[in-house]
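Look over this today:
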Amino acid sequence: MTVTAERPHRDTLYVEDAVVLEHDSYPGEQFILRVRAPECATHARPGSFAHIRCSASLPMRRPLSIMRADPQQGTVEFLYKAVGTGTRALSERRPGETLSLIGPIGSPFRPDPGRPRALLLGGGVGIPPMVFLADHLRREGHWKPLVLMGSEVPFPFDARPSAIMVPGAPPAVIAAMPLLEDWGVASRLTSQQGYPGCFEGYITDLARHWLEALDDEQRREVSVYACGPHRMLAAAARLATEYELPCQVSLEEYMACAVGGCAGCTVLINTPDGQAMKRVCVDGPVFDAATVVW
């Protein structure tokens, strides 16, 4: 069943009975969920998320960022970590079952064609939107994305030594995401857990190495896109300001309705008319980093 509703502040939302196709587990209580949800798959954009009912016994839904959407197959993929009652219940759902899904929700990333060197920063559960954005950019053709991913738990994939050079990256930092490598998209992994081939430090530290390796003309082509923990996003915003780069961030907040009704996910944003509370679910989750009151 599909129900649509129009609102001035968002695109059309769809309510679907999504069929679970695959549900794989990874170390660190991480899961990749693939469902058939044709309307969501068709209308999703990088930065969109879905609100999923994890179990019939739990009335409150959970918001999950979309990692991949295939309009031709009508499928949507999510990467999530089981951290509470809802996501633990979701982790028990099996192929063939159905999930009530509302989506796609939210204001997506808006890549700037005038700055084709897209620097994508994904930390922890902020990784999925960066994979989605990288997929979108590589299909456009003229972009030169670099995806940097950070995690303090094992990555939900077996890292592969990269064959794609990343200027400024220390020689020993060669770990990459296999999916991105297959797409021809440069990526590197960061962690402070000593994982082989990963950069030992913060994701923004590795980003600084890369930025310093570019000349002035190349840096003028850079735009930054980030999703992850609040502290990481604040650091990404400071880095972008230091190098005078535009930066878009996808914020994460606890949500109840996720469709703008409850105003429970508000954040303080600078607007032309002064500071105002904006809803992460529908006014975001993507905001210009320079407008966020960190």
